[in-house]
Amino acid sequence: MPMRISFYGLYSIVVALQNRSGVTVKREIEAQREREREREMGLLTHRVERSEIKPGDHIYTYRAIFTYSHHGIFVGGSKVVHFRPERNLKSIAETSSNLDDDDTSSPCPTFPDCGFRQPNSGVVLTCLDCFLRNGSIYCFEYGVSPSVFMAKVRGGTCTTASSDPPEAVIHRAMYLLQNGFGNYDVFQNNCEDFAMYCKTGLLIVDKQGVGRSGQASSVIGAPLAAMLSSPLKLLMPSPIGVATVTAGMYCMSRYATDIGVRSDVIKVAVEDLAVNLGWTSSNEEVPENETSNTQITR
């Protein structure tokens, strides 16, 4: 005997199938859009989830609507060691970024020692929440190929230099938390420089040039590339050609200042960092077998 389905039952089945199909299609479209966004952002940044970061990772987050990024070393236990100007460290509970002026004096609700630092030092220990300030987490990439490095349109996201083991990275970060990282300088000694030193132990010999920071290289490299490409406007009638050459110069200038390819860098033990940067008297005794005076071989 054939099964009879009422009109209402048939209508319910059709609606259910339509709704299911619509939801499936909608989810697939949203997933595709998300994959496209990830591919696009892959050329700029490396966004990760909290569950993905590991002790010893160099992480960063963006401030002021992606105007600049703030960098630090994740040391585990939802804690981050990072470097900020001393003028913005008015209290141990203050959680402002390295360029923000809005100080927050209220205690951290999750980590009693959040904001710990030594007197007259810009190296601070905070919880991950205060470091991010509701921002997303991005992981700085090490050991990337030259092609990937130059494909990253935005500086301060990766380097061709290799990272040291997590134990060495955390040791440097905690040592500098107790001993400081010198005076903060936007172009030569900033939060990205701090994190990159903790990850690699590399120090630039030429103290007058641009530091390790990819952000600083981008700030200087973009106007420089535009200036150098200006005479080409007389030779190239097409604006596209001029823009292409300018972009190429910008990428090459960033690559030339990357610590992974520079020849003026040395491996410096964190215990000898103060002497090499002139924070203490150079007459202090330094073990001869330390790596602070050893030129890196490539």
UniProtKB/TrEMBL annotation:
> Per UniProt, what is one Pfam family of this protein?
LRAT
Q: What is the superkingdom listed in this entry's lineage?
A: Eukaryota
Put simply, this protein is called NC domain-containing protein-related
Name all LRAT domain ranges: 60-207
Q: What is the lineage of its organism?
A: Eukaryota, Viridiplantae, Streptophyta, Embryophyta, Tracheophyta
